[in-house]
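--- STAGE predict ---
source: upstream dedup step, 1 unique chain passed
mode: sequence only
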Amino acid sequence: MLVIIGCVVVILCVAAGFLIEGGNLSILFQPAELLIIGGAAFGGFLIATPMPAVKQVVVGVVETLKGDPYTKKDYLDVLQLLSEIFYKIRKQGLVAVEADVDNPGESAIFSKYPGVVKDHHILAFITDTLRTVITTQIEPYELDALMDMQLEEHHEELMIPSRSLATIADALPGLGIVAAVLGVVLSMQKIGEPPEVLGKSVGAALVGTFLGVLLCYGFFGPASRMLEHIATAKVQYMTVVKVVLKSFVSNNASPQVAVEFGRRIIPAKVRPDFYEVEDAIRRVKK
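--- STAGE serialize ---
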């Protein structure tokens, strides 16, 4: 929602300022300039971006309209899920959760938390880590390095949409100049026309530069930053899970202590307090 509001504010403020100075909005409507800039930007984007990344960009742009990807409830759910798994391991041993890990969709534990199950990245992170612990004699430092590698790979993947939009944003001012130069070339063909006709033509040509700069710094650049924030939030979510898993598996912490390690690094705006997590764990014990 904030993204839409921001776009409206940019458009209204630019238009209002132009009108206050006595401008005519009709001169800013130049479909040919938009076609040149937009078409060239889209074509360059296709040249520079593999098809899987194009799909990621589309999904990422849609995500910017939704805002923060995770809420306090999402964090509570994943902490509660992990604590439930840990308590089962403490009571029945590692082998007891093997069926849950191998088939999380049919697991009585995982099925309680549909939000976690739908997030295939975090689900794979949890199940792959537990499966590795169950089936191998991996050392704590090796497990830590393994999870760090997966986090790094996930972060690189999440940054693809942001970097792709940033590339488009960087190209837009230059493409605006291209459109302006083409407009000036057309204006030169009207050199014999009256000044008012020639001036209107030159003004229309300069709109290309205006549109390129506005699209870069008013829309695509900020959208790229928003996608970067979303990627950071997703990596933070997985980092919380990593800390909880590491505390329990590698440091042999109790389920409640392991969950508290994770709770402490949750961003403040969505961090559940100690008592909320304690209540969640108490429900797990019951």
